[in-house]
Each structure stands twice: as structure tokens, then as C-alpha cells.
Design goal:
about 350 residues; Pseudouridine synthase; nine-stranded mixed sheet; 16 strands; elongated
């Protein structure tokens, strides 16, 4: 029997993908029993729920739990991780709900909110809030801790739309959509510099940096990391910075932030990826002060998950959710709009102020 395990990117460690090829001498037994016997820490009910959601494929086709497996069959199954025994306390943290029914919850996550508990962040997270407002939810933990309802995540200082599964069936179905990339996620990002083109594609493997394990790095030769693809298009130009829309074709950790840094356009005020300094613009002192004032208004990376499109896990209806730009990001955009229409001052040079820093990003 050939078996492999794959874990998806930005939603890393949130769900697992097993692929099994049956032996030539495999006996004819029920699919759910076959998988139960071979997958550790997996209940038969969990497998049956996955099959009902269309997450169990035999030779590329959705299969029922009662289907008999045959020699040579190729079986694929996507599962949320089983819950670990870690106690997370409910906390009364306000949530902005965009949509809710018996199966899913869609929220507008505020900047500064950590999504799930972990080392150094055991309280004050989205998971603590979910437990308080909705009680017990099906869990998709990572290697160590439970993550009730979570299918994907946003960085602490990234705001915007997130979907949560309220039942195991919904969670499993959503996990499949994110794994198969049939969901559609679009972000608004304010980045340093201008672009020669109106749209483009960034493609490069992403993995942890060998120099700093807290950040990601692009490995263009594909020798490390996992494949990652980001599509971008210009929404508005401000000469020294640009508002872009980014569509994720994959979901790697920090994908937009590290991809934009790699092509020389780090996100505005992204401290982890070098965007928290004046990288493009004039040498005029008042300009420096203007940028620093913008940093104070927006004390985080300028990234917002603007829209999310998914298929409802029960009805199958395509659903669109959208979140307006938060006040801090909108305020900075208004400042740049006003600045960009003023006449350039004498001695204004459209050159990077920190050429070495920009070069080091490439």
C-alpha cells in the first residue's frame, strides 16, 4: 500500500490529505472500514462525514462509505485534524458577524486579533471568542492545540473576511474547497513603489527563512518550500505607493507579504518584511514626516481580506462576502490621495531612499 500525507499552506496544519493506493491483493471490503483500519486517530463516523461532504474520492470520483474497495484503487481523503486534549477558555471578545446560519459563520476579523491560541498567545484569540459566543464547535487543530471551526486563518495584523464551520459536515466541506482552491479570496494591499504593468502574476515557492524562522522566504528554484501563486492587479496609484488587489491561487503562510517583498514591493508598514521605513519617494523632510504620520495612523501591515467566495456546504449555493476597508487603512489611503494630487516640490526625486534595503529584498 502506497500512502502519503499532504498539509495545506496558509491553512497549514488545519487539515490533512491522505492518498492511498490499494495493494494488488486487496480484499473487497467497505470503504469506511478500509480507511478506519489504515488511518490513525480517525473514527469511522469522521470518515463517513467526510464521504457525505464529497471529501472521499476513489479513482477521482466521490464515493459512499459502503462502496467496496478493489485492488489498485486510488483513494483520496481530506479531513480536519482530530481534536487534541488542550483546554481553551471562552472569552467575551466582540466579533463583527457578516453572515450566520446553522452551518457557517462569516466574520470581519479586526486587526490585532490572533486567530488561534499558541505559544505566547493562549488568551485573547479568535478561538477564545468563538467558544464564548457559539459554545462547542467542531475542531480543526494543528499539531498541538484545538482550533474549533477554523478552515483558514489571517495573520494577527491582517483584517477582513473569514469563514467558520459550525458543524463537522460544514467544516469538512469547507476544508475541501480550500484544499481544492475552489474558494475565491481577494485582498487589498497597499505596497511600496509603482508598477509598470496594470496586473501580473507572482510565482515562487514559499518556505520558512533559514535565517529567521519567524518569517517566510521565496525559493524561486523550488528547491525548498511549497508552490505558491499570487495574482495581482493595480487598483489605484499614488506615485510612491500603490493599492493592489491580490488573489490567492494557493494559501501559504504570509504569501502576499513575502511575494510582494520578493518583487521589490513590500507592504506599507510591514515590519517583518521591511516595509516599515521610507523605501520610495523624495528626500524632502516634510515627505518623511508625512510617511511617519501614516505609519502612526496604520500601525500594521496594510493588508485586508476584502472578499471571499465559497459554495455553501449544505445548499451548494455560491456565496459572496465582502468587508469594507477598516478605518485605519482607509484613513491612510485618503492621506495619500490628497498628497498625490499636490505639485511635486523642488528637488523632488522619484528614487528609492534606501536603495540597499530595496536591493536586499530581491
Amino acid at each position: 500500500m502506497d500512502q502519503e500525507l499532504d498539509i495545506a499552506g496558509e491553512e497549514q496544519e488545519l487539515y490533512e490529505h491522505h492518498r492511498i493506493v490499494c495493494d494488488p491483493k486487496q480484499s473487497l471490503i467497505r470503504l469506511d472500514k478500509f480507511l478506519f483500519d489504515r488511518l490513525a486517530n480517525t473514527s469511522r463516523n469522521r470518515i463517513q462525514v467526510a464521504a457525505k461532504a464529497g471529501n472521499v474520492l476513489v479513482n477521482g470520483k466521490a464515493a459512499k462509505p459502503s462502496q467496496k474497495v478493489k485492488p489498485g484503487d486510488e483513494i483520496s481523503i481530506v479531513l480536519p485534524y482530530p481534536q487534541r486534549e488542550v483546554e481553551i477558555q471562552p472569552e467575551d471578545i466582540p466579533l463583527e458577524v457578516l453572515y450566520e446560519d446553522d452551518h457557517i459563520l462569516v466574520i470581519n476579523k479586526q486587526a490585532g486579533l490572533v486567530v488561534h491560541p499558541g505559544h505566547g498567545n493562549w488568551t485573547g484569540t479568535l478561538v477564545n471568542a468563538l467558544l464564548f459566543h457559539f459554545g462547542k464547535l467542531p475542531s480543526t487543530p494543528g499539531a498541538e492545540i484545538p482550533r474549533p471551526g477554523l478552515v483558514h486563518r489571517l495573520d494577527k495584523d491582517t483584517s477582513g473576511v473569514m469563514v467558520i464551520g459550525k458543524t463537522e459536515e460544514a467544516l469538512t466541506h469547507l476544508a475541501r474547497q480550500f484544499f481544492d482552491r475552489t474558494s475565491d479570496r481577494r485582498y487589498n494591499a497597499l505596497v511600496w513603489g509603482d508598477f509598470a504593468d496594470d496586473e501580473g502574476v507572482i510565482e515562487g515557492h514559499i518556505g520558512r527563512s533559514v535565517k529567521d524562522r519567524t518569517v517566510q522566504f521565496v525559493y524561486p528554484d523550488g528547491d525548498q518550500g511549497k508552490p505558491a501563486l499570487t495574482r495581482w492587479k493595480v487598483l489605484e496609484r499614488f506615485r510612491y505607493i500603490t493599492l493592489v488587489e491580490c488573489k490567492l491561487e494557493t494559501g501559504r503562510t504570509h504569501q502576499i507579504r513575502v511575494h510582494m517583498q520578493w518583487i521589490g514591493h513590500p507592504l506599507f508598514n510591514d515590519a517583518a518584511y521591511g516595509g516599515d521605513r521610507v523605501l520610495k519617494g523624495t528626500t524632502f523632510t516634510k515627505y518623511r514626516q508625512f510617511v511617519e504620520n501614516c505609519f502612526k495612523v496604520l500601525p500594521r501591515q496594510a493588508l485586508h481580506a476584502r472578499t471571499l467566495d465559497i459554495d455553501h456546504p449544505i445548499t451548494g449555493k455560491r456565496m459572496h462576502f465582502e468587508s469594507a476597508l477598516p478605518a485605519d487603512m482607509q484613513a491612510v489611503l485618503d492621506k495619500w490621495r490628497a498628497y498625490s494630487v499636490t505639485k511635486p516640490m523642488e528637488g523632488d526625486e522619484d528614487e528609492p531612499l534606501d536603495k540597499e534595503a530595496v536591493n536586499n529584498m530581491k
